[in-house]
UniProtKB/TrEMBL annotation:
Keywords: Cell cycle, Cell division, Cell membrane, Cell shape, Cell wall biogenesis/degradation, Magnesium, Membrane, Metal-binding, Peptidoglycan synthesis, Transferase, Transmembrane, Transmembrane helix. Belongs to the glycosyltransferase 4 family. MraY subfamily. The chain crosses the membrane at residues 20-45, 73-91, 97-114, 134-156, 168-187, 199-218, 230-256, 263-284, 290-311, 339-358. It comes from Sinimarinibacterium flocculans. This is Phospho-N-acetylmuramoyl-pentapeptide-transferase. GO terms for biological process: cell division; cell wall organization; peptidoglycan biosynthetic process; regulation of cell shape. Its cofactor is Mg(2+). Its main location: membrane.
């Protein structure tokens, strides 16, 4: 909105030309989301306490988590509001990629909101029945994947790109739809599984989103993309603002979510953020790079899948003491802050590996 206003005003005042620079608006995006989180965070936490929106804790988890019962949840609403406000203020609202990203984030957030509400209302840590939850997530995932495919303006927008390998790609055609669906829904559930300790999921999300902002900017710039050997996708650079808004909102939320947490993001935040990372990776054609940079999310998801399969086919034996993976380390005696920071460090390393793919081809 303010971007359109600045475009109008620059006809009369040359100083408003600065708003035409994507890098400047990206900085404004992160600062706006951060300021929004700081401004409304305490107010929202107070309201969550007042309405007794406390987190029910499963009794089959680590015993140390029982003391977290009653900590306000659904703080992800703050994150989604901050992202939406920053993106709407500073993005080009005529850009289809921006709307795809916002649609996915809000849709998955809505499913997460329903899940959290049921948990709180019925004091049931399981929340929305798995079939209903999967149905609505699938509907949103397939819906936006179909829209992206239907509105693609160049073959590269539906081509699978392999990092570190020059001129190696696969034209997906109609198979782009199930592929994009798997990436979006998979990323959403991966972040949700990781969100089990104070600040564990949000900082990796911030790091990955920041790196995706670089990919979006580079992919949307004809000169830079040609130099780096990555696909040029006209208009996708606007997603850099969406990504920096995620980073700003995430950092602002971390202020309140850092150990010991004053508020949890809940499924409304985790499902939405994971889907947001997934759809950006799909739009900038860097799904494999997302899997590299989000290695912590991948490991958490695989730990659950491996544990379930091994338990089923080994007659009740377990590989991990508990899944997801962070619970395994908890039961090994690692303090919660140590697990959190070490997972952050691993994510930072993986993000740097992902960024290296921009040049190593």
């Amino acid at each position: 909105m303010l971007y359109e206003l600045a475009e109008f005003l620059q006809r009369y005042v040359s100083g408003f030309n600065v708003f035409s620079y994507l890098t400047f608006r990206s900085v404004l995006g992160v600062l706006t989301a951060l300021a929004f989180s700081f401004a409304f965070g305490p107010w929202m936490i107070e309201r969550l306490y007042r309405f007794k929106f406390g987190q029910p804790v499963r009794d089959d988890g680590p015993a140390t988590h029982l003391k977290k019962t009653g900590t306000p949840t659904m703080g992800g609403v703050l994150i989604l509001c901050a992202i939406s406000v920053a993106t709407l203020l500073w993005s080009d609202l005529g850009n289809r990629f921006v709307w795809f990203a916002l649609m996915v984030t809000i849709a998955f957030g809505a499913v997460g909101f329903a899940d959290d509400y049921i948990k709180i209302k019925h004091k049931n840590p399981k929340g929305l029945p798995a079939r209903k939850k999967y149905f609505w997530l699938s509907l949103a995932g397939f819906g936006v994947s179909t829209l992206i495919f239907a509105t693609a303006r160049a073959p590269i927008e539906t081509t699978l790109i392999f990092p570190f390998l020059k001129d190696v790609s696969i034209t997906l055609g109609i198979f782009f739809i199930p592929w994009a669906y798997l990436v979006i829904v998979g990323a959403s559930n991966a972040v949700n599984l990781t969100d089990g300790l104070d600040g564990l999921a949000i900082m990796p999300t911030v790091l990955v989103a920041s790196a995706l902002a670089v990919f979006a900017y580079a992919s949307g710039n004809a000169v830079i993309s040609r130099y780096l050997g990555i696909p040029y996708i006209a208009g996708v650079g606007e997603l850099a603002i969406f990504c920096t808004a995620i980073a700003g909102a995430g950092l602002g939320f971390l202020w309140f979510n850092a150990y010991p947490a004053q508020v949890f993001m809940g499924d409304v935040g985790a499902l939405a953020l994971g889907a947001a990372l997934g759809v950006v990776a799909v739009l900038v054609r860097q799904e494999i790079v997302l899997a590299i940079m989000g290695g912590v999310f991948v490991a958490e998801t695989l730990s659950v899948a491996i544990q379930v399969l091994y338990y089923k086919y080994s007659g009740g034996k377990r590989i991990f003491r508990m899944a997801p993976l962070h619970h395994h380390f908890e039961l090994k005696g690692w303090p919660e802050p140590k697990i959190i920071v070490r997972f952050w460090i691993v994510t930072l390393i993986l993000v740097l590996v992902g960024l290296a793919s921009l040049k190593v081809r």
